[in-house]
Structure formats: C-alpha cells, structure tokens
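Table S2 (text version). Query chain:
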Amino acid sequence: MAVSSTSSHCTAFSVQDLPAPPVGKRGWPWTVGTKLLPSRRSDGSLWPKLSIITPSYNQGRFLEATIRSVLLQGYPNLEYIIIDGGSSDESVEVIRKYEPFLTYWVSESDDGQTAAINKGLVRSTGEYLGWLNSDDLYTKGAFGKAIGAFLKHPESIVVHGNRILLDADDRVFGCSPVPAFNPPHTNYVVCSETAFWSRGGMDKCGLLNPEFRFAMDLDYFSRLFMQGEFVKLADYLGYFRCHPLSKTSTIWHVAEEESAKAWLRIFNDDWPGQGFELNRMDVLYEFLRHPFLIGIPYFQTRIMKKLRLEIKHS
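Corresponding structure-token output:
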C-alpha cells in the first residue's frame, strides 16, 4: 500500500506551479491553464470548498492529463483526492509527481471504481463535490462555471453540462450537447465528468450504490434527482475519453442490465434506453458555437485521419 496526505489547499495553481509537462505535450492542460480566480469573491467571502475525487486503476497513460485538468482550474479552494486501486502500471509514479498539490491519495487494493469513489467522498470535506475518472478531463474553466451556477441557484443540488468526446490520442472526434436530465421525459444520463453536486444533496441520498459497476452514475444522479433541483448548463464542462480498454467499450452489456435495474427500482418503470440522438444540424451548430473548443479540433482530427489512411494505402 502506498499512501500520502497533505493539508487542504486554498491556493489556485498556475502552469508555472506544476511540474513541467512531458516533452511534446502542449495546450490544455499542459502548457495552458485557466485564469486564476481571486482568492475571495467580490463580497469578500471565501469561495466554497470544492472536493474532486479521482478513482484510478491502471490508467497511467491518461492519468497525468486528468490530474492537471483538475489542478489547473484556477479555483482557489480546491480539495483533490485520488483513490488508486493498487495499480501495477505507472499510475503511482504519476500521482507521486503531483503529491505536493493533492489533499490526499492512497494506492491499495479495493472493490472497484464505485468503492473507490465512495472512499474519497467519505474523506472529503467540500461543500460541493464531483468525481473525475482517471481517463477523462475537465475543460478549462469548468469549476468556475459550475460553482458560479450553484451560487446563482443556491436551491439547486446538481449542476451539470455537456461533454466533448476524446480519443486515446487526445483528439476531439465529437460532442454531446445533452438535454437536461429530467426523467422520465428525458432519460439521457448525466455525464459524470460534467457533474457537480452539493453536500446537502449527498446527505439526503447517501453514497454511490456499490451494487453497480457501471450504472452507478445513472443510479446516483437519479436518486439525487428525487431530492432536489438540477441546473443544466449549455457549457462544455468535461472531456469523455473513448478507448478500447474503457468500461464503455468492454462491458456495455453490464451497463444495459444495471441501468434497467436502477431505473425500475427508482422510477418503478422499464428502462427506456439511451434515447438521445443528435442530428447533423445540431452538431454543426455546436461546431460553430465553439470553434476553438470543438469545431477546429474536430476537423483537424478528420483531416489527419484521412491523411493517415491515404498514406497507409499509398
């Protein structure tokens, strides 16, 4: 078991504060960070503490980008906790590299992703919370937008947004401007890498259900939905990474089974499935609305893919 803990940080970090990125890595979250928020709000009060949990297991290839996307949010009252399940790859080495900037981390055998998240949530002390898987990222400025929404809507218990799709090589290949989670009218699940919730909401509905390996997010946000108000932002708050070893790719059948079970238990109805689809005009609108975040990176990915295919067959 490897374990370390440090004091809670109340200082926002810049690119210059963190270890140098690997050679060849540029842009967000490597050489570009978020503009630092002032240490206090305009009324002189402190920013509410935000706790972020990252469950980690053998995703060392992606973990450093995940960590930097949390630390470079420019948010002045951050508590960052990493719960590693005893990784045998380079994950622990990556975590140690950023140890001075973490509130707490541990690497030891556990019962999987849901158990790891719960372990972090139990240790957390923030007024607002979120979890970020070790192969996903937050977008630049996500924390400021989410906390700003909570402060504007103090009655809300969840704030969530849209996701950008990223491949294993950090290339943008799509986006998901999802509708507000409003079952049973809208059944598309809240994207966990874009979601934040209040401690008050968690106190009402408890921790994630360890019964679920995949649909713990659907189950959890559905239970939160029964307790209070959700705010859906039009902003893109997270990157969801698709790669061959992700759970989305390897155990999709488990997701379907667990989603049906959770939906029936909470809403007493059959799971309608992920019924949300985008048409081409919707996608084009998002590319035009966010040219530098989505549009240009997407077309660069398409052009490079076409060039690689032409070279392969030449």
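Notes on Table S2: The chain has ten helices and ten strands. The mean pLDDT is 92.
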